[in-house]
Amino acid sequence: MTEPTHQPSDDAADARSSDAASRHVPVLLERCLELLAPALEVDGAVMVDSTLGMGGHTEGVLRRFPHVRVVGLDRDTQAISLASERLAPFGDRFTAVHAVYDEIRDVLAELGIPAVQGVLMDLGVSSLQLDETERGFSYAHDAPLDMRMDATTGLTAADVLNTYDERELARVLRTYGEERFAPRIARSIVRARQEAPLTRTGELVDLVRASIPAAKRQTGGHPAKRTFQALRIEVNHELDALAAAIPESIEALAVGGRIVVEAYQSLEDRMVKQAFAQGASVSAPPGLPVVPDTHQPYLRLVTRGAEEADEAELARNPRSQSVRLRAAERLRATPDHLRPTPRRAA
After folding, report:
1. Domain 133-236 has what CATH class?
2. Is 55 annotated as a binding residue?
């Protein structure tokens, strides 16, 4: 985790800021603002945008709530730079930090913020990462097999494809991509890399397409979609980070604070649903005549199930097609027996 960063504004920065705004339409922005409003309208409110990206959601918050301060987290240094330029006009109301979202309480401790009134998480791959074709997130363009959200560290997708054994590759594709043809694709990858290491997304797309029966390629979108999702999740340890980030984010909330999460695939949404359901449920054994305060729910579900984009949102922003939005409000402190194990010092 790095120190908070602030970027000055100049003519070049203004141009890059405008470019960031034009390239990114935040998903369900108005609904997110509506859900966060009761918590953010209090004096001195602070919100954490745990997935800063190009800053679209944060800009919406800063404009709608003139007294709110936002701390923006992102593991992508390019996103930090673009968002900082875009949000420079808001001065010290915005602080950018290079960090993964499961580090939220470490970041707040370093900034001297004991608790926040809002947390926003917009999960998955960002518009920036998809648009930068050389980063290898998209199956629509030939590029190096990278897929790292933080390009400064960690294994690339090429490393995974060229070093994991066949059984492990199949597990990754099946578990993270829900790919029914995972064994066939893994077998093709291992066979191909015996001739030469895989280095380009185009090579992988061709391998996946050839591994899936022709009749099955006609439905379900691009045949490589699930494989690319699985590799991205594996390379960035997304589900491990999310499993820690949800309880850490809840612990960062003050009483009355709200958390809003936008997920784009079933594995993420299931984790969010389960964490919120645990917090909104009585944790005492069934049959007790009186439920102790220490076993009362500590969250209230603000949305009824997962909300989806309506027709107007879909027309405005095609990326919203698969979004599943959930929100919850903190009612009281988390009971000791349900509190997450403290993270090791960063």
Report:
1. mainly alpha
2. yes
